[in-house]
Amino acid sequence: MKTILVVDDEGKIRDVVVSYLKKEGFQAVEAATGSEALQALQRESVDLVILDLMLPDMDGEQVCQTIRKMNSVPILMLTAKVSENNRIKGLSMGADDYLTKPFDPREVVARVRAILRRTDDGHLLADRLSFNDGHLDIDSLKHTVFCHGEPVNLTPNEYKLLLALAKYPQRHFTREELVDKVLGYAFDGDMRTIDQHVKNLRHKIEPDPKNPQYIVTVYGLGYRFAGGTT
């Protein structure tokens, strides 16, 4: 049974979301503040975080950044900020998806299921792939990535994106194909979301993000993985 951490300072919203999650077979942990959420993550085994951006003690973006320094648990942001810049900012800080308020709690549950399916599906045919004399290693059994032997803290979507590309070196993928593989067929947001995930991933795994040697842009099409296997 998956455990979902619901972070929102409005008790009524937490009650509704938790109620729907429990009806669908999830366990739920509640937090009304950012500090409560971070404490809950330290004592509970959480599979996904539903995080409101507007919290009384710290904003949700700050909480998101702090969580990302701790682990790669998937994060679904709840926000009343509907501008594209705010959504992209949330994704750039490590959120995996976002939902604007007001929302249908049934859609929250659907998004939770979709995110968990995506993160559970990330696997390779080989147990471990290594590129460029061990500079980059992907361990599919542990769902971990290493650069020069040091672990890299990737979000679930970044991990899925890297897997999707690394499985097929030199194959060109369109943004639409990568959206389907990483964000799911039901994703109805901007295709440029993939560009933001690529940018984040490059900063984490590339020796020089401005001159990438792994995730290469294919102009007019999308991206390909150029790293040679060792």
UniProtKB/TrEMBL annotation:
GO terms assigned for molecular function: phosphorelay response regulator activity; transcription cis-regulatory region binding
Annotated keywords: DNA-binding, Phosphoprotein, Transcription, Transcription regulation, Two-component regulatory system
Domain OmpR/PhoB-type: 126-227
One GO CC term on file: protein-DNA complex
Domain Response regulatory: 3-116
Tagged with keyword Cell cycle: no
Pfam families: Response_reg (PF00072), Trans_reg_C (PF00486)
Entry keyword Transcription: yes
One GO process term, biological-process aspect: regulation of DNA-templated transcription
Chain positions with 4-aspartylphosphate modification: D52
Record feature DNA-binding region, as residue ranges: 126-227
Subcellular location: Cytoplasm
Protein name: Phosphate regulon transcriptional regulatory protein PhoB (SphR)
